[in-house]
Amino acid sequence: MMKQFIYNNLRVITAIFFISYSALGTAQEKTVNEVLKKTQEVMEKNNQLTCNLNYNWYDTYTTDKPSFNYEGVMIKQSDVVYSKINQTFFLTDQKAQLAIKCNEVQKALLVTKTNGDFSQSPWELLESYMKQFKVKKVTDKGDYWICTLTTDVITQLPYGKIEIYIDKQSSLMTKQVLYFLTQVPYTNDKEEKKIGNPKLEIVLSNYKTILNQEEKRTAKLTSYIHKKGKNITPTAAYKTFKIIHN
Questions:
Q1: Is the pLDDT at 126 greater than 90, yes or no?
Q2: Residue 201 above 60 pLDDT?
């Protein structure tokens, strides 16, 4: 259940991820919308971008120790966005208008046409999500900013609050914290069954704006599937994987 929360919402997380590079002024001079607008402008200049991701799942808002942890990676190459968590990866190619979800354990490639939200850029997705949060503020914490988005009403998003940490010196996002509205069952240290509102912390590190050859290959649709007309087949590297059309 907890792991599925992350998988189901990774595209939302991907959109939020793209709040990264931005030349920020003082917190007093900036609103959250202004910060993100500047981020959009800078992101458009970066055809290549990658960073490591560390996912920490906490059973409640106040829990200090994560119940589980996953490593991941995010890669942007022109119109392609690739993201991976544990043994599941997602790839969206806006130019080809195709998206892939791959479960490496089940050896399955789910191929979907990009329409509606899927055809939007990460910024456009984030912009639509931003409209659903009533309260937006920027807090000056010394060497970093915290952009906080909050809502007290039910929306299509599973989050009641999102915190985005941005390092002042590098202007890079270093962390996101997503607070879920839905309660989820868990077992505490005393083996007692409980229900709580979980949070997901994502730490971002090792940013690069130039991709190596392996990263370029990873963020390519043709590394996974071949498409001829309506016929889609796996590449040689994925010949044992089942293609599922949705």
A1: no
A2: yes
Q: Choose among 159, 149, 145, 3: nearest CA to 66.
A: 3
132 class by beta-carbon count within 10 Å (0-12 exposed, 13-18 middle, 19+ buried): middle
Here the tokens at position 233 are: 């087949």
Residues 216-244 have a mean pLDDT of: 93
Q: Is 86 exposed, middle or buried (0-12, 13-18, 19+ CB in 10 A)?
A: middle
Catalogue the long-range contacts made by 9-12 (C-beta closer than 8 Å, 24 or more residues apart): 9/158, 9/178, 10/83, 10/85, 10/90, 11/90, 11/92, 11/117, 11/118, 11/125, 12/125, 12/129, 12/157
Q: Amino acid identity of 23?
A: A
Average of per-residue pLDDT across 117-129: 54
Q: Has residue 14 got a pLDDT over 70? A: no
Which domains, and CATH codes, for the chain?
Answer: 2-245 (2.50.20.10)
User: Distances from the Cα of 161 to the Cαs of 6, 131, 144, 152, in angstroms?
Assistant: 16, 13, 19, 9
Residue 121 above 80 pLDDT?
no
Tracing tokens 């990774």 back to the chain, one arrives at 10
* Residue with the larger pLDDT of the pair 1 and 211: 211
Give the chain's mean pLDDT. Answer: 80
Reading across the β-sheet that carries 144-150, which strands appear in turn?
Answer: 135-140, 144-150, 159-167, 173-180, 199-208, 48-58, 68-77, 80-85, 88-93, 98-103, 108-113, 242-245
